[in-house]
Design a protein that fits this description.
Blueprint lengths: L3 H11 L4 E5 L6 E5 L4 E5 L6 H9 L6
Antiparallel strand pairs: 1-2, 2-3
Length: 64
């Protein structure tokens, strides 16, 4: 299981807080929201890391 607190800290540090992560209610590892709180996706344990989330910045999900 991904450590949500650590992952959010990495997002805040390296991606300027562009995303929020929360424990998933849909059975996945985390729910990913943009900086405004809008739901983006549910990521499983393999996807729930700073590298895969930072890829979303490059494909246009950057919320700032």
């Amino acid at each position: 299981m991904t450590n949500i607190t650590t992952l959010q800290s990495e997002i805040d540090s390296y991606l300027d807080g562009a995303f929020q992560v929360h424990a998933s209610v849909n059975g996945g590892a985390i729910d990913l929201h943009d900086a405004n709180g809008w739901y983006i996706d549910t990521l499983d344990a393999d996807e729930a890391n700073i590298e895969d989330i930072s890829d979303l910045v490059r494909i246009g999900y950057y919320g700032k």
